[in-house]
Amino acid sequence: MPDSDRILRAGEGRYAGGPDFGIRFMLSGDRTGGGFSMVEHPIGPRVLAAPLHRHRYEDEWSFVLEGEVGCQLGDDVVVAGAGDVVFKRRDEWHTFWNAGDRPARILEIISPAGFEGYFATQADLLDAGHTPGPGVMEALLERYGLEFDLESIPGLLERHGLVLPTPPEA
């Protein structure tokens, strides 16, 4: 079996996103029998990765590779450092951000697999120069069982001293 079937080397895998928040696709459900998917998120200093949101179908485990990552899990706020793992349960409102002044990276394991399709669809649209409009976003959210609380953004930014990620260049 060739190396490419057994090992994903540093820097390999599709990358999507901007300069201070992105996603590196590492393992998809077709490679894991649907059991899980794995992505890496680099997060710039003090950057909010997402508004409060919840997943209907998946649990997520975030392994902090470097830096400090803040997470709101329901009403609880935690800060995790390199080597820590944060568990985000399905149906629980949560979000995450870089809580420090240096870059952070997390390895996210999502189980069962499938949610990586949400990220891939958004990446495909952005690569094609399209910003997903309301109708497209509503369909994506329904398909992947995802809910956002967009009204949470201003409070999260203020409370934790954060900024929004820089959009990817077109």
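^ that was protein a. below is b, sequence first then the tokens
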Amino acid sequence: MPPLILIGVGGNLATPRWGPPRETLGAALAALADADVAIAQRSSWYRSEPVPRSDQPWFLNAVAAVETGIDAGDLLALMQGIEIRFGRLRGERDAARTVDLDLLDHRGQRIRSRDLILPHPRLHQRRFVLEPLAEIAPGWRHPVMGRTARQLLAGLSDEQPVERLPG
């Protein structure tokens, strides 16, 4: 399997301009495509309980494999700019949000800087990332742990409810 660039997509709040989360997140992916980040493949949409559990609305999540010549740091900056454009307010950790774009992996690189950690430091603990990731790239290997997406998913408990949505 060639090295992939993987982006996690999530949100649980509607926006006035784009509407409910599915439409908002679709528009955010289109904004990436408009910025020379080709969406090679996108998983199904998944509905997931907030982590940690709270009374906020459940999230809509997906994972996209993308193709671009943009390096990891610049891609992260681009993604954060799109989040802001789509109404993402950074403040309280794990708060409800309109759009969350996470750089999960950038061609297997290991990066640890003030602004960027690759692979994403919690992706192996999150069913809402691993379910869609295993759907589109079951043989992807974690650059540090060496385990595939399917193996990581099999190692999780069932405590994180995640539901694959139709269409």
